[in-house]
Amino acid sequence: MLFALVLPFPARTQPDLPPPLIPLPARVVWQPGTFHVDARTVILAETDTGAAMATARYVAALIGQVSSFQPDVAVHDGLRQPDNSILFSIQSRGERMHPEGYMLRVDPRRVLIRASAGAGVFHAAQTLRQLFPARFESPALQHPTRRDTVRGWDLPACMIQDAPRFAWRGLLLDCCRHFMDVEFVMRTIDLIAQLKMNRLHWHLTDDQGWRIEIQRYPALTRVGAWRTEKDGTRHGGFYTQEQIRAIVAHAAARQVTIVPEIEMPGHALAALASHPELGCTGGPYSVANDWGVFKDIFCAGKEETFTFIEHVLSEVMELFPSEYIHIGGDEAPTFHWERCVQCQARMTAEGLEDEHALQSWFIARVGRFLAEHGRRLIGWDEILEGGLPEGATVQSWRGMDGATAAVRAGQHAIVSPTSHAYFDYPVSSIDLERVYSFEPIPAGLTTIDASRILGGECNMWTEHAPQHLVDGKIFPRILAMAEVLWTPVRQREYSAFHRRVDAFYPRLDSLGIRYGFEAPAVSFDIARDSTDRRFTVRLISGQSGLRFRYIDPAAPSTPRAYDGPVHLRGRGVLRAVAEATDTARAGGTLRSDTLALSYDWHDGVDATVTLGQRFHTSYAAGGAGAVVDGLRGTDYFRDGRWQGYEDTDVEITLDLGAERMITELAAGFLQYQPAWIFMPRQVSFSVSRDGQRYTDVATIANEASDRDGHACTRDFRATTARVSARYVRLRAETIGVCPDWHPGAGGKAWIFIDEFIVR
Predict the structure, then answer these.
(1) How far apart are CA 319 and CA 204, in angstroms?
(2) Segment 491-498 long-range contacts (CB within 8 Å, at least 24 positions apart)
(3) Bridge partners of 72?
(4) For residue 28, which of 192, 237, 320, 621 sits 20 to 30 Å off, Cα-Cα?
(5) In whole angstroms, how far apart are CA 724 and each of 664, 685, 699?
(6) How many CA atoms lie within 13 A of 82 on its CB side?
(7) CB atoms < 10 A from the CB of 745, how many?
(8) CB atoms within 10 A of CB 535
(9) What would the DSSP string read from start to end of 446-485?
(10) What's the 3-state SS for 649-693?
(11) Mean pLDDT, residues 2-26 taken together
(12) Could you give phi then psi for residue 34, rounded to 5 degrees?
C-alpha cells in the first residue's frame, strides 16, 4: 500500500492539561502522545457519498481555512486504516450504538471515528474540533499571510465513547421582538452545533412582528413585519422563503433541526394588523411597539380564522421538514372571546364549558390539521388548561408542573422553566451555576413517565436584547445547558465544569463571541450600623479576574479603584462597575453595567413593623423589615427589594420606639403594568402617640398613567407641620383588578412597595 511508505512521526508529549471539552463526553480516557495533522494527513470516509463523506469534507475545510494546507479527502478502501489518517466510519450494523453517539480514538498514528448514523459522526467532529487549540477558531488565521505560517496541529491522544442523555437539546431564538440578520441566524446554528445541540426553536411570529414570508398572504410581511417605535423610527424585517430554505439546509448539514413557532391564538397583533378581519372586534390593530401580553387575539368563532391558519401552516410545512411545529398557545387572554358573539356561538355549538375549553378546542383543531399532514404539535404549558389536546407535546415554562402533567397524561414534554432556562433574564436571576444545577426530569416521575421528557431548551427572548446583545445573554450560560442536556448526571460536577469553562474562554474569544458574565459581576454586601447610622458596603465579585471601580456619593466627580469597604451615611446612590483584568479576553471589552445602590438612612430605619396584610410569598423581599432597611428598590421588580401585595390594599404601621418630631412621611412604589403591577390609587399617612388614636396627616392621589408600559417608581410624599408621634401608618389603596384596556383585564392587580420613609 502507498501509505506504508509514510515514515512514523516522532512521539510528541501530552499537553500539561487536556483540552476543555464542553459538553463533557460520557467517557474520556486521556493517553500519552499526540497525533500530528499536517499536509500529509488524509481524511477518509467509507463511501464517496453520505454523512461520513460530508463530515470528512467539513473537517478538511475547517483545517484548510486556518492552515497552509487542506488535507486530501478520499474513500477508504475498507482495509487496514493507514497511518496519518482520520477515518470517519458509519457502521449501522453489528455494534449497537446510540444514533447520536460515537467513538473517537486518537493515537499518535491515526484518528478513528465510528458511529451508527450521520448525527454521531458530526458530533464526533465537534469533539475533534475541540481537541484542536483555541486559536484553530481564530478568523485572524484565515488571512492568507497568517494561514501560510501554520504547518501543522497537534491533537492529544485519547479514547472517547459518547452519547447524549436527551434527544432534544435546543435553543429558542426570538426574532420577533428584534429582527436578526440571516447571517446571524446561521452563525447561531453553527455555534449551537459545536455544543452538540440539535434544535433551533425559531420564534417567527408575535405581537411585535411577523417574520416569515407567506406567499398567499403578502400583507403579513408588507404590514406585519414592521412597527413604528415610540421614538418614531421603524423596526422590522422578515425572512423570504428562499432565505428560510437556505437556513434550513444550513442547519440540516449541521445536524440541527429547525422547529418553527407560529403563535396562536394569542400573540397575534402583527397578524391582526395585516388581516383585521381575523380578530373579534375587527380592529383597527397595529403591530405592537411594546412588550407584554395583549388581549387582541385570533377570533375562535370565525371559520375564516382557521382557513387562514391552515393556509399559513401549509406553507410553513413546505419550508420546514421538522416533525414538530410549535403553535405557541400561551398568554392568550379570553377578554374578547367572552364578549364575542361568534366565539360564544362556537362554544355553544361545540358544547364547551368556558373559554379555557374553547382554547383547548382551538389547539386540538390545529393539532388535527398538523397530524393529517404527518406533523406533531408543540405548545407552551397553557395548552393544558381546558384539557390537553390528544397528541400534543407540552413545552413547560412556568416551572416543571406542566411537564409533569403532560407525561403523566401519556404525552411528551420539553422543559425550559423560567427558573433555569430563560436567558433573557439577567445573571443576577439565573447565573451559570444555577443553569448547571438544572435537572430536566421532574421529581417523582416513574421511569416510564420520565422517558417521555424529550429534553430541554434555553430560551433567548429578545424584548430587551437586540442582535448585538444576544451573545452576551447566551454565553457562557449555554455551555452549562449544553452539558446538562448531553452529559450523564453521574459525570456532572460544577467545580470541574467551571474549570473547563475558564479554559474554554479563549475558544469563545477566537470565535468572536462577545460573552457576558457567569454571575453578577459586582454585588453589594451591606451591613447596617445603627449606632453610627451608617452602611458599610463591600463589593463582591461574581467571578475571578475582575476589578472594581466605584463612585462615592461624597465625591461623585472622581471614580475610585475599590480597595476596601465603603462607608455611607445619609442618602445617596453608590455606583460601581466591574471589568476584566485580563484585557485579552473578549477583546478587552468585558465590562459590567453600572450597578447602583440607592440608600437612605431615614429616622424609620429598623423600626418595628406591623403589617395589616401579609405580603405575597413570591415577593417577600426578606420579610416585613425590608420596608425600613434604608435600601431602595430599583425599577426592576425582581431585584429582591420590592415587597408585593396581590389583590389587596396595604397597611403598614411603624413603631419608632419613642416619640419623635415628624416632618415628612413618604413611601416608594413601583409600576410595571405588563406584569400587572400598578401604582396605588392613593396613599394615606397618619400618626399616633399611643398606637390607638391616629391623626390623618395627608392623602396623596396617584398622578401616574396606568397605561405607561415602562417600569417607573414614585415616592408618595407628605410634609407635615412638626408633630410628635411614636407610631406612623400608611395605607395604600389598590386599583383592585386590571382595567378593561389591559390584556389581563379583570385579573388581580399588584402593589409593590419599598421603602416607608420617616423624617
Answers:
(1) 13
(2) 491/24, 491/26, 492/24, 492/436, 494/433, 494/436, 494/437, 497/22, 497/24, 497/436, 498/432, 498/433
(3) 42
(4) 192
(5) 12, 14, 19
(6) 19
(7) 16
(8) 24
(9) -HHHHTTEEEEEEEE--TT--HHHHHHHHTTHHHHHHHHH
(10) CEEEEEEEEEEEEEEEEEEEEEEEHHHCECCCCEEEEEEECCCCC
(11) 57
(12) -140, 160
Residue type, 258: I
Count of other CB atoms within 10 angstroms of residue 282: 11
The C-alpha angle with vertex 489 and arms to 483 and 495, in degrees rounded to 5, equals 65
Q: From CA 477, how far away is CA 428, in angstroms rounded? A: 12
Q: Is the pLDDT of residue 413 over 60?
A: yes
Residue 443 neighbours by CB distance under 10 Å? 7
Whether 229 sits among the annotated catalytic residues: the reply is no
Contact 358, 346 (CB under 8 A): yes
Handedness of CA 217, 218, 220, 221 (dihedral sign): positive
Do 745 and 295 touch, CB atoms closer than 8 A?
yes
Catalytic choice (36, 250, 267, 326)? 267
List Cα–Cα distances, 536 to 345, 380, 524, 529, 592, in angstroms. 65, 46, 10, 8, 22
Q: Which of 331, 338, 647, 706 is catalytic?
A: 331
Residues 223, 226, 229, 235: what is their CA dihedral angle, to the nearest 10 degrees?
A: -160
Torsion of CA 98, 378, 169, 191, to 10 degrees: 130
**84-109 confidence digits (pLDDT tens):** 999 999 986 656 789 999 999 999 99
Q: What are the tens digits of pLDDT across the range 225-255?
A: 999 998 999 999 999 999 999 999 999 999 9
- pLDDT at position 14 over 50: no
Cα→Cα distances 539→349, 595, 719, Å? 64, 10, 35
Q: Quote the distance between the C-alpha of residue 380 and its chain's center.
A: 15
Between strands 571-580 and 643-646, the pairing is: unpaired
Decide if 579 is catalytic: no
Q: Is 204 left (phi over 0), alpha (psi -120 to 50) or beta?
A: alpha
**Nearest CA among 123, 11, 57, 54 for reference residue 486:** 123
Please check whether residue 750 is in contact with residue 637, taking contact to mean a CB–CB distance below 8 angstroms. no
Average pLDDT, the chain: 93
Separation CA 83–CA 93 (nearest Å): 26
Cα separation, 709 vs 678, whole angstroms = 10
Active site residue: 83, 162, 206, 296, which one? 206
**pLDDT tier, 582 (very low <50, low <70, confident <90, very high otherwise):** low
